[in-house]
UniProtKB/TrEMBL annotation:
Protein name per the record: Mobile element protein
Pfam families: DUF4096
InterPro entries recorded: IS402-like_dom, Transposase_6_like
Domain Insertion element IS402-like: 7-69
């Protein structure tokens, strides 16, 4: 299995506007959960095989499903498009 994957603060800040507002009980750390989701997908793991450092596998799965349903409304957003590489001189 590959090493753990962690989003940088800059990467997280770029996608934060797309997270739903917290109501009631505060949710688990977004950086931890999103990093866990990416780790599972990149390594072709089942949700139950996610390292516990990312939190409960059920949380990762539920958040992935919830966010996947929102993709159709946000996938055209410029903030989610890959940035073009800037040539250096």
């Amino acid at each position: 299995m590959s090493d753990q994957y962690w989003l940088t603060k800059a990467q997280l800040k770029r996608i934060e506007p797309f997270f739903p507002q917290t109501r009631g009980i505060p949710r688990m750390d977004d950086q931890r959960v999103v990093s866990g989701i990416i780790h599972v997908i990149r390594n072709g793991l089942g949700w139950r095989d996610a390292p516990t450092v990312y939190g409960p596998h059920k949380t990762l799965y539920n958040r992935f499903v919830r966010w996947s349903r929102m993709v159709s409304s946000t996938e055209s957003s410029p903030a989610l498009r890959p940035r073009a590489a800037h040539p250096t001189a």
